[in-house]
Design a protein that fits this description.
2 copies of one chain form a homodimer.
Chain A: E1 2-3, H1 6-18, E2 26-30, E3 35-37, E4 45-51, E5 54-59, E6 65-71, E7 76-77, H2 79-84, E8 91-94, E9 98-104, H3 105-114, H4 116-142, H5 145-159, H6 165-172, H7 176-192
Parallel strand pairs in A: 1-6
Antiparallel strand pairs in A: 2-9, 3-8, 4-7, 4-9, 5-6, 5-8
Chain A binds a DNA duplex through residues 144-146, 165, 174-178, 180-182, 184.
Chain lengths: 193, 193
DNA sequence: TTTAAAAAAGGACATTTGTCCCTGATGCGC
DNA sequence: GCGCATCAGGGACAAATGTCCTTTTTTAAA
């Protein structure tokens, strides 16, 4: 549930250190609860998270939110928009304090054109996203909420992060009421078993 | 709902025609209802659909299926598996008679390494898949079935294809019973409005 | 410590969806 | 045409989920 890409992080850190072009990459520090990227907006930077956690979510017209993913170390933001030259699909909001590299989009395009290692990392990243998104969509549609929630709690424990109930509900695509109800049901089962 | 990628189709057709390497690409004709690719299996070919329609679906352990996408002209099959060197995530089954190009995986890797135009097309394709998968997951989780179904019927009409009720239900992630019920509800509304 | 305000949790009811099973339609062999 | 088998459709009930609103808990201020 919390994605990371340490390979990409290493790449960008090396790039900043070694290359003369590294100076075009800015480092930013962002407080928790700040919207880094706004759905529908056009952005000119691609971000790579150096540290911290963000949530990437779609706000639907009916007022509901769906969290696509929680993004951590080494994850990239805005790459789809840069590749396809479209406005942002999602909102991205910081959950913790976040440090991120900001890469101007022309530099991003240049990297793809000239740096095969970067392109390979990017291909891997996109592949992983498709796999995870598809797998999750299937899982959430076809299993009971109780099963999905228990799996989510487990993942959260493993990742050693704390996600608010509201965010977990948005990740599962359900109301907070259902979330609470199912949580209680799970707790009761654990007591009994 | 029915994805196509005419750019990729053009590319591969030109590649077969012009290059000396084109001869390594085989053309296959497959009858309807045949499973091209089996979940969990390892494949050594990447397919690009020249003509016809397939469905790409995940079979969950609880016996239910979830259709990720319907793939048409120019769509590629097995690219994630080749890129990440993993067993197949999905089943892919022909719905109509299908003609497809079969590309050995070593040739696919070679193309990525040596042909920037191909890589660019691939990046675009992967991006599109992420966008569509995410958008759909959000939509299906947050809107009513009735809304989702009416949109699906509309898409089906536009694409001028016929999908079985069973497949549409699997695409929506619901039972056939719910599908029929909602369909009836929609029909009644159309009569009244 | 007390009280008011805000946030979180939960009860009650309506709606949606799944499951199970029956019914009626369709096709096929005789 | 008749009888049988098969399958799609739908009825009935159970389970899951959303909505609305009340109750409880937490927080902060006086």
């Amino acid at each position: 549930m919390l994605r990371t890409n340490l390979q990409l992080l290493s790449f960008i850190e090396a790039f900043c250190r070694d290359g003369h072009e590294g100076s075009k990459v800015m480092q930013k520090k962002i407080n928790p609860g700040i919207r880094l990227v706004q759905q529908g907006e056009t952005i000119t930077n691609i971000y790579i998270i150096k540290d911290g956690i963000t949530k990437c979510y779609i706000s639907e017209e009916n007022g509901k939110d769906f969290i696509i993913e929680f993004l951590g170390k080494g994850e990239v933001i805005g790459e789809l928009e840069a590749l396809k030259k479209i406005p942002c699909l999602c909102n991205v909001e910081t959950i913790s304090e976040v440090t991120a590299y900001a890469i101007p989009d022309y530099l991003f395009s240049e990297l793809i054109a000239k740096n095969a290692a970067f392109t390979e990392i990017l291909l891997q990243e996109l592949s992983t996203r498709i796999i995870q998104t598809s797998t999750r969509a299937s899982f959430q549609q076809l299993y009971t909420l109780e099963y999905g929630l228990s799996k989510l709690l487990q993942l959260q424990k493993e990742a050693q992060i704390t996600i608010s109930k509201e965010d977990m509900a948005a990740y599962l695509g359900i109301s907070v009421r259902s979330f609470n109800r199912t949580l209680k049901a799970l707790e009761n089962k654990n007591l009994l078993s």
